[in-house]
Amino acid sequence: MHIEKVIKDSLVNFDGKVAVYYDDLNRNVLNINGKEKLTYLDKHYVNGSGILRYLSKGIKFSILDVATLMMIISDNVATNMLIYFLGIDKINETIQNVGCSDTKLYSLFK
Fold first, then answer.
1. Whole-angstrom distance, CA of residue 82 vs CA of residue 93
2. Domains along the chain?
């Protein structure tokens, strides 16, 4: 798969944490660190949309599951879990590096 080589080559000198899940819906799937586990902790809790805030702390989820909840149902706890995992400074640095100079992520943490 060509996309797999492009992604893996771009990660060789990448300084940071990364998880990639790619599915072209034609049985070509790429999963890099998507099974790594994140634990739902008190520090991730925030009011707002989503279902994770109703679940018990200490539950472990794959990064893929957390990202899916963040994207499909706009789960705010899932968003915080990923922000903590990736680091808000690294996220903002990446946002700037891809050319979004007027965009900045601010923390939802309490």
1. 15
2. 2-97 (3.40.710.10)
